[in-house]
Write a structure and sequence with these properties.
By secondary structure, the protein is mostly helical. Helix content is 77%, strand content 0%. The protein has nine helices and no strands. It is elongated, with a radius of gyration of 24 Å.
Length: 178
């Protein structure tokens, strides 16, 4: 029996092996992406049914397969909020913001979650950033108005309501049950 036998490959053979490895990685990546999308869709179905624990399970599986899956992070954050795990919701939405720093949706959602934890200054900062990114979003003004009213800034609240109504005259109807 030969020990320490050195096997020599020519560059053509190494190129073929490298190509096969690249193809295999691509197939695995595509399979993981498809599975992640399937899990994400199942998570959305669970959210529709108000099965937030099930949604959390499926969104987590999607994120495990595709760690930069922003929409799965966004929806898992929402599900965490629905089960009142605001710290986990903030962790996920912060990662979403890292992936999509110009998305006002992330800042708006994080503002909501921080408000639940009574982090009013953090919430206000996030609503301000959401408005900076999309000054035509009436809901950001409405939720900032709610927050300002809650912290005793009646004048600021009134100004935000005025701006929201200028952007969308039906905004009061849309937020009646909030």
């Amino acid at each position: 029996m030969e020990e320490n036998k050195i096997v020599k490959y020519d560059s053509g053979q190494l190129q073929k092996v490298g190509n096969q490895i690249a193809i295999t990685k691509k197939l695995v990546s595509n399979t993981n992406e498809k599975l992640a999308i399937d899990y994400f869709n199942k998570g959305r179905d669970c959210q529709q049914l108000k099965d937030y624990e099930g949604a959390l399970l499926y969104f987590t599986k999607a994120i495990e397969l595709k760690s930069d899956y922003g929409e799965a992070l966004l929806h898992r954050a929402s599900s965490f909020c629905m089960v009142e795990d605001y710290h986990s919701a903030i962790t996920d939405i912060t990662e979403y913001i890292r992936l999509k720093p110009n998305s006002e949706k992330g800042y708006f959602e994080r503002g909501l979650f921080k408000r639940h934890l009574k982090d009013y200054q953090g919430s206000l900062n996030d609503y301000n950033k959401a408005i900076e990114l999309n000054p035509k979003d009436s809901l950001s003004y409405v939720f900032r108005a709610f927050l300002k009213e809650e912290i005793g800034d009646k004048e600021g609240s009134d100004l935000d309501w005025k701006q929201a109504l200028q952007l969308d005259e039906d905004v009061k109807k849309k937020t009646q049950n909030v």
